[in-house]
Amino acid sequence: MDRLVNKFAAKLIAAGLAGNQGDARPLVGGLDDVLVWNRSGSETGELEKIFAGLSINSLVFLRLKEPYATLIGYLAGQARIIAPKDCETRTFLHDLPVIPDFETGVVIETLKRSKSVIVASPKAGPLAGPIIIAHGTVSPEQGFVVASSVCFACFVKFFADYLDLLQAGCAGVQDHKIFDAVTRHLEALNLETPLLMTAPFTTEEDVYRAIAQAGRKTVALHLADSYFGNISYRWNDTLYISQTGSSLDELVGCVDPVPLDGSSSAALTASSELTAHLETVTRTGCRAILHGHPKFSVILSMDCSPTEKAACDFSGQCHIKCPNPRFVEDIPIVPGEVGTGPTGLCRTLPAALENSRGAIVYGHGLFTTGRDDFNEAFSTLVAVESMCREKYFEKVRMLRSR
Q1: 104 with 15, same domain?
Q2: Which of 23, 99, 105 is nearest to 64 (CA)?
Q3: What is the C-alpha separation between 139 and 60, in angstroms, rounded?
Q4: Is residue 198 part of a domain?
Q5: N or C terminus: which one in the chain shows less Cβ crowding within 10 Å?
Q6: Residue 195 lies in a domain
Q7: For residue 7, what are the domain limits?
Q8: Would you say 27 and 34 are in contact if contact means Cβ atoms under 8 Å apart?
């Protein structure tokens, strides 16, 4: 347990969600035969009461680093429930509860109904917010996944909401002030695409190594949270694909070989987006598929003008039924949900990738392909996210100058 609480605390820091000095570091607690923490802190006394009040074995206490502190503090100050619209939240988190101050009993009652709680309090002291508290019943990994997902969802919501306000002509002085404060803390996107393993891959071991390397680099450049996204490679007559629930930066031993003829049950544990990957490699002839959740690609995928919204017959179902052809430059935006149903990604994504270097799924993320290895797919992932970020801020500047 010592190893796990330290591992996931380090992951939160590496993801840019928490500081790495003193009390700015996250607290991760794990209960095995005894309760252990990754560090000592004045907060642990109250946090141990949460363990006593819930049937859990792990807890994450995340004091947020900028820009998350400002943007989540702002969202938490607007409502007692934050309701993001990205796919990750719809399928995994649902609504995000907010409480005004840290009160142990209220935290416990909230966590009985939810995977996380956001403490909004701007007051000073060791339990002052904004703070994310998340728990797990099996491993500290659960709390890490939830906390990082809350950060992702709130980031996307903050920037998407601001663009909506500008387009509706409703953005006020305070909205502009908070937006400017948040953007001052944004890190520059790392555009130095790493050199990945090059084809041809001559052994199955080469395939496993190439997949694991591409996954690690995707997370390292903050193009996906470690737990989300997926990756695959076609070698001979088999599609090697990351397992469902696996972390992209820890794919050793977590990749399933799925014969293209369906002659194996390996697909039972493969990524939930297996069918979309299979159809894509068949239709495009590509070998490599990389799916990340770069933030501004997701944000722009949900951008819709007031005029378009007024004329839409699918309000609330945009992510699965948007009928309009939509693009960011040459990159198509398609609707679709995980699975093989009538609105599944397997029906929308492969066709889009057949004629494009990548495709963004509404509110979900970016898929890119590589003809022979992951170098092309990774370069496209970085380039498209960079383009989406530039387009977003160009649009903001234009709307604010009116």
Answers
A1: yes
A2: 23
A3: 11
A4: no
A5: C
A6: no
A7: 2-183
A8: no
Q: For residue 261, what are its two tokens?
A: 């003829």
List, as one string, the DSSP characters of 81-150: EE---SHHIIIII-SEEEESS--HHHHHHHHTT-SEEEE-----STT-SSEEEEEESS-HHHHHHHHHHH
User: Is 85 part of a structural domain of the chain?
Assistant: yes
- One domain for residues 105 and 221: no
Buried b (16+ CB within 10 A) or exposed e, 184-216: eeeeebeeeeeebbebebeeeebbbebbbbbbb
Residue 147's nearest CA partner among 17, 263, 48 is 17
Task: Establish if 107 belongs to a structural domain.
Answer: yes
Helix, strand, or coil (residue 292): strand
Tokens linked to 288: 């490599």
User: Kindly report the CA angle at 313 between 307 and 319, in degrees rounded to 5?
Assistant: 90
Residue 339 corresponds to which amino acid? G
Query: Buried (b) or exposed (e) across 108-131, using 16+ Cβ within 10 A?
Result: bebbeebbbbbbbbeeeeebebbb
Half-sphere exposure of 134 (CA within 13 A, CB side): 25
Residue of 190, 183, 149 lying closest to 67 (CA atoms): 183
The pLDDT profile of the chain, 402 residues, written as one tens digit per residue, is: 999 999 999 999 999 999 999 999 999 999 999 999 999 999 999 999 999 999 999 999 999 999 999 999 999 999 999 998 877 666 677 789 999 999 999 999 999 999 999 999 877 677 777 999 999 999 999 999 999 999 999 999 999 999 999 999 999 999 999 999 999 999 998 888 889 999 999 999 999 999 999 999 999 999 998 788 999 999 999 999 999 889 999 999 999 999 998 776 666 778 888 999 999 999 999 999 999 999 999 999 999 888 877 777 777 777 777 788 899 999 999 998 877 778 889 899 999 999 999 999 999 999 999 999 999 999 999 999 999 999 999 999 999 998
**What is the CATH classification number for the domain harbouring 223?**
3.40.225.10
119: left (phi over 0), alpha (psi -120 to 50) or beta: beta
The answer to whether residues 263 and 381 belong to one domain is yes
Answer for the pair 152, 224: CB distance below 8 angstroms, yes or no.
no
The tokens for 128 are: 């002052």
Shared domain for 17 and 152, answered yes or no, is: yes
